[in-house]
Amino acid sequence: MAPSAVSLDSTNDLATAAITKTISKSAHSLLLNGMPNGASDSLPELDASRIHITLTKEPRPVPTPNSPEVWAQSTCTDHMITARWTFDHGWENPELKPYGPFSIMPTASVLHYATECFEGLKVFRGHDGNIRLFRPDRNCARMLMSSTRISLPAFPPLELEKLIKKLVAVDCPKWLPKGNPGTFLYLRPTMIGTGSALGVQKPKEAMLYIIACCFPTLDEPASQPSMTYEKPGMRLLASKDDMVRAWPGGFGYAKVGSNYGPSLLAQGEARERGYDQILWLFGPQCHVTEAGASNFFVIWRTREGRVELVTAPLDDKLILDGVTRRSILELSRERLSRSWSGDGTIFEGLDVIERTYTMGEVEEAIVEGRLIEAFGAGTAVSIISPIR
Ligand SMILES: *Cc1c(COP(=O)(O)O)cnc(C)c1O
Q: Relative to the CA of 138, which ligand 1 atom is closest?
């Protein structure tokens, strides 16, 4: 079955703008030094149509939803896609092959200098029986932005999207059975620097790969240590000033592995103390940025009486441009900004605002009884997670 992509039109598309900027920058460097990454421009591009397919001879059983095996989040589907890139020869033909380990040299760039970026998106088996991806073009555009931020090779995002759909087409009919509507797999496109030169330099070899991992349905309350049916919602522990996730001029806006490893210490401490995630604050004024690996929103009433949906902005490049975040902003602007009433319901329209705001403002809103709710938004959390 051909997967269909859900896509909403967007006029002010910052992600696309960022990509255009990246590309125009690399176009500039192309004029100066030849191709991005310095390679010559006749080298092959990533090309999904040249994929070579080897199906597994040892298909594995599909685990039952939410079984311990699924909770371990280490079971992937029968196949994966890989594509190698080298500085001298460009992109090799992609391969779809049995899922399994690959070998890299102990000197590989990724193991020493964190030349790694990734994406996370879900493929769903709908209640109507169809298989769907949610706005995969956004993930592919963001992956290009992330890879070029850490000097991994550029690629046409559409080719990555085609490769993702290829893996979905091969593995989803079996791994997302029709009998389990509402289930999903987590897709993880990844790129690593595999060049084996130990010197601190741009990697001259890289590998792009895509895997599909079995995930528990995270909206089951038991999925978060402190979640219960009586009181749903994540508990957040505010970060302290000795632990900063991202900073101006850094790379907090890119989905690169080096943003995550160093944050696990704070997250581990939060877990030990009975919280689910860290609420990342920034700077002496305690700007509220993100919650764990999800974007963070508050809904409050202003002192003037307006209802506002507020989230941190993208322009200072501290936070990730979440696909979920963007969808929430677009939908709220389109559908929730006007008040209406009918059928005994009164809905108060809200102002949708992207701006820097502080923990002090949140505290004031709580003290003055103006905070209505808060939530985390991201693919890996259950799309929208209320904050307790
Ligand atoms: C992936 C991620 C998000 C959420 O992005 P989505 O595209 O909505 O899944 C938010 N913040 C961080 C730090 C992330 O890594």
A: 7
